[in-house]
Amino acid sequence: MIVTRFAPSPTGYLHIGGGRTALFNWLFAKHHQGKFLLRIEDTDRARSTDAAVDAILEGLKWLGLEWDGEAISQFQRKDRHAEVVAEMLANGTAYRCYCTPEELDAMREAQKAAGQQPRYDGRWRDRDPSEAPAGVAPAIRLKAPREGETVVKDHVQGEVRVQNSQLDDLILLRSDGTPTYLLAVVVDDHDMDVTHVVRGDDHLTNTFRQIQIYNAMGWKTPEFAHIPLIHGPDGAKLSKRHGALGIEAYRDMGFLPETMRNYLLRLGWGHGDAEIISTEQAIEWFTLEGIGRSPSRLDFAKMENLNAHYIREAEDARLVTLTTPFIEAKIGRALTDVEKDRLRRSIPGFKPRVKTLIELADGSLYLFAARPLAMDEKAGALLTAEVRGQIGALAAKFAEAGEWTAGALEAIVRDFAEANGLKLGKVAQPLRAALTGTTVSPPIFEVAEILGREESLSRLEDVKNHG
């Protein structure tokens, strides 16, 4: 069975690069009817926080990337990590190193002075334990092979090699008994039966060392796929100024989860010329070989256009649910059931016009505005004294309407315009200002129908009586 994992460090939010890594692991597992596991790499106790763990879990759930089984804490497995190192000491693939921090610093300085790459020189590799200094707690190091090479057959990067002479004896357990990241990852991946490690290509150098740990334990090595990183629009490494935000920030900017799945998928993976790819299609098509080797660039305009597509595809009732919190935050109160129904009926008019839920919320605020409406600058300029009189006359016609539908109201306005020698726009635009407080909205006759007879007539009466 194919088993993948996502293993974030809980030192901050789930950033967009981590979201894409999780997505690729999830899709690959789903494609093969396998398992997608979650491991929280919380061994850095000083920087790991419960709030960060919660943010990661929430971000994954919002993206729709549900994992199999319980999330695993790496820190809680520290005894197992130490147990494996004890096996390595017993089989001769690890040894105790009694170097003090001062000795290691002096070693590195001497190497730098000689123009060499700073690295551990293996001075305790073959020494007799009887030479151990009293009172010094040892670190445990891997007795790495010095001859030959270590090879990674990577699904994205191809075959990558490094001479073993370039790798030193890495620390497995620190002198205080805590495991290092490189050891913990290997033990956890082995114990979790992970078959494929899919992660950022910034981990590629770690992989050579991790393979040596697998070999030292006689364990089967998983397959690897190292994904190029995401860059900003300018081609530079992604940073906060580019939008390297937490996944929840994109949610709060009004993006839909299906948008983010589609967008993140296309950041470095392709299937022909397809740009809009549903989650079902992505599961069917996804392969590691479809991942490109070049870094991808973040493109907010493309993300917004994709979001506009998915908003048009979304069910109206779902958009009401997703947009309501944005509206309530803006108006400072909860929407009534009547207002939610008003919002639902307005959604079809907004779908072709908005790119984010924020735009949808902002555009619909007029539906819930307190009377008399606060007019924006353009709307206020439009409503001259003459126009207000015209609005009053039109309101009288509306009050006599037999049915309150967009079609019936449009017919009344057309008749009114013709009777007064006006073009339709000269009546419709002031009507829009009177009913919404702005000069931009969905079709105004649909707006009037959604507001209903009582609310519409009251707003028109407010305008007529203003000043």
From TrEMBL:
Protein residues bound to ATP: K240
Biased composition (Basic and acidic residues): 120-130
GO MF annotations in UniProt: ATP binding; glutamate-tRNA ligase activity; tRNA binding; zinc ion binding
E.C. numbers: 6.1.1.17
Primary enzyme class: ligase
Coiled coil: none
An annotated GO cellular component: cytosol
Motif 'KMSKS' region per record, residues: 237-241
Catalytic activity: tRNA(Glu) + L-glutamate + ATP = L-glutamyl-tRNA(Glu) + AMP + diphosphate
Residue numbers spanned by region Disordered: 115-134
Pfam families xrefs: Anticodon_2, tRNA-synt_1c
GO biological process, alphabetically ordered: glutamyl-tRNA aminoacylation
Top-level division of the source organism's lineage: Bacteria
NCBIfam families in UniProt: gltX_bact (TIGR00464)
Family under the similarity heading: Belongs to the class-I aminoacyl-tRNA synthetase family. Glutamate--tRNA ligase type 1 subfamily.
Function text: Catalyzes the attachment of glutamate to tRNA(Glu) in a two-step reaction: glutamate is first activated by ATP to form Glu-AMP and then transferred to the acceptor end of tRNA(Glu).
Oligomeric and partner information: Monomer.
Name listed for the protein in its UniProt record: Glutamate--tRNA ligase
Species for this entry: Niveispirillum cyanobacteriorum
The gene coding this protein: gltX
